[in-house]
Amino acid sequence: MNFSTLFRTKENLNLDKSTLTILRYIAIFGQFIAVNIVFFYLDLKFPIKESYIIIFIGLLTNLFLQFKVKVNQLKDTYASLFLLYDLFQLSSLLYLTGGILNPFSILMIIPTIVSSTFLSMGTTIILGIITSFLLFIISLTHLPLPGLDSNIFSVPNYYTIGILISILIGLVFLSYFGIRFAGETKKRSEALNKLQEVISKEYELESLGGQAAAAAHSLGTPLATIAVVAKELKKEIGNDKEYSKDIDLLISQTKRCSEILKKISKKQIEEDSFFSLIKLEDLIEEIINSFKETSSKKIELYVENDRNKIDTRRTPEIIYGLRNFIGNAVKFSKSRVKIILKSDEKIIEIKINDDGPGIPEDIIKIIGEPYIKSKSKELSLNSGLGLGTFLGKTLLERKKAKLQFKRNSELGGALVLVSWDPKDFTNV
Question: Which of 17, 44, 54, 327 could be a cystine partner for 147, CB 3.0 to 4.6 Å?
Answer without folding.
Answer: 44
